[in-house]
Amino acid sequence: MATKSFVDVDADSHFPLQNLPYGVFRIPNCAAEPRPGVAIGGLVLDLSVVASHGLFDGPILSNSDCFQQTSLNKFVGMGRPAWKEARATIQKLLSCDEPTLRDNSSLREKALLPMDSVEMVLPIVIGDYTDFYSSFYHAKNCGLMFRPDNPIPPNWFQLPIAYHGRASSVVISGSDIIRPKGQSHPVGKSPPHFGPTQKLDFELEMAAVVGPGNEPGKPMDVNEAENHIFGLVLMNDWSARDIQFWECMPLGPFLGKNFGTTISPWIVTLEALEEFACDAPNQDPRPLPYLTEKKSKNYDISLEVAIKPAGEEQSSVVTRSNLKHLYWTFSQQLAHHTINGCNLRPGDLLGTGTISGPVPESLGCLLELTLNGQKPISLNNNSTRKFLEDGDEVVFTGFGKGNGYKIGFGTCSGKVVPALP
């Protein structure tokens, strides 16, 4: 594999030749439809141009229109052989010793666009979205706050807990999040309070983008599930804690969670992340056979959350965590999701749940960081936060650090705007 591109890639860039994440973009004020692209340094490689010039000449992609689509669903559904063929072609075209793009200024001008000149849109059409609860530290911390005598119920160690979310409210990074309204817990014998949430929170998550699905009634084998994962994105599953707490007994999250979920625009493939694979935590008790992996792995991906208040130029990092802290792996999540015969489809999104670490500086949401508002955190501008305020911009970043380069996800950001009248 080539390790250097003819494109000038800054050492701090998340998008070197070793990464090549996929997204979908459009040109502002242009009638052309959105199309797939790959990030390289500060540029976007337009895959529709590459395809229309016949440069995908392998046996799987040579006659495919997957890169002429307005989403990546067709491509991600083609499976790993197509993904590997595309990656090899793109790496070759962008490598420093390949003249096809490097020496053709006209083609290069059409195919390589400045990233700041395009608008990123959702890279996939998300048919279904599921949110898991796979971090031991997050489950333990929340349990200690609300169920101190039994912080983690026994079933949590037997299966990846999850609930179905709302795919229609998944938005691309940079989208505003309107403060939601709803009911919250009554005081004394008063009726429930109704109004804008007073406990708006972020949740530091990542999510898997499903590639080829499975037929109804045919579960995925846990040791083959990785072949059904195209890649990962950063995800902020915004939460209205006061609304959530009032509604979640006995059934679970609803209005406190379904108003907005933000994902990063670039999908980083598992092949690009393979060098950051690491052992998953030991699971005790041993999972049931359908969840027992021959090799149980996570990924060593550093994660960070910053808050930038309205009118401020400087943001404050409020937590640093790592994807490797997940207790239940992505493969186990897919295997459990399908064990009852549920069919997944290309473009489905599976969130990890909040990713918290073992130390106070690695907690993945304000609920944990502030002990449900009892212990405010300080920001750089001398203000404090119990929960998010209107005008706050929340920015997630994530990357793995290689030998002289980073493989990252860019950013996943959203700004809180006031509730509608």
Structural class, by secondary structure, is: alpha+beta
The separation of the N and C termini measures 56 Å
Outline the low-pLDDT stretches: none
Number of strands: 26
- Biggest pleated-sheet summary: 8 strands, mixed
Taking all Cα atoms into account, the compactness measure Rg is: 22 Å
Estimate the mean pLDDT confidence: 97
Give the overall shape: globular
What is the beta-strand fraction? 25-35%
Helix fraction, binned, reads: 10-25%
Multimeric organization: single chain
Total helices: the number is: 10
Keywords:
single chain, alpha+beta, 10 helices, globular, Fumarylacetoacetase_C_sf
Description:
The protein contains ten helices and 26 strands. The longest helix is centred in the N-terminal third of the chain and has 15 residues. It starts with 21 loop residues before the first strand and ends with a strand.
Please give the structural blueprint.
Elements: E1 22-26, E2 35-40, E3 43-46, H1 47-52, H2 73-76, H3 80-94, H4 99-102, H5 105-111, E4 112-114, E5 119-121, E6 129-132, H6 136-146, E7 162-164, E8 170-172, E9 176-178, E10 181-184, E11 193-196, E12 200-201, E13 204-210, E14 229-237, E15 239-240, H7 241-247, E16 261-263, E17 268-269, H8 270-273, E18 277-279, E19 297-299, E20 302-308, E21 316-322, H9 330-338, E22 349-351, H10 366-369, E23 377-378, E24 384-385, E25 393-401, E26 406-417
Parallel strand pairs: 6-22, 8-16, 9-26
Antiparallel strand pairs: 1-2, 1-5, 2-3, 3-4, 6-7, 10-11, 12-15, 13-14, 13-22, 14-16, 14-17, 18-19, 20-21, 20-25, 23-24, 25-26
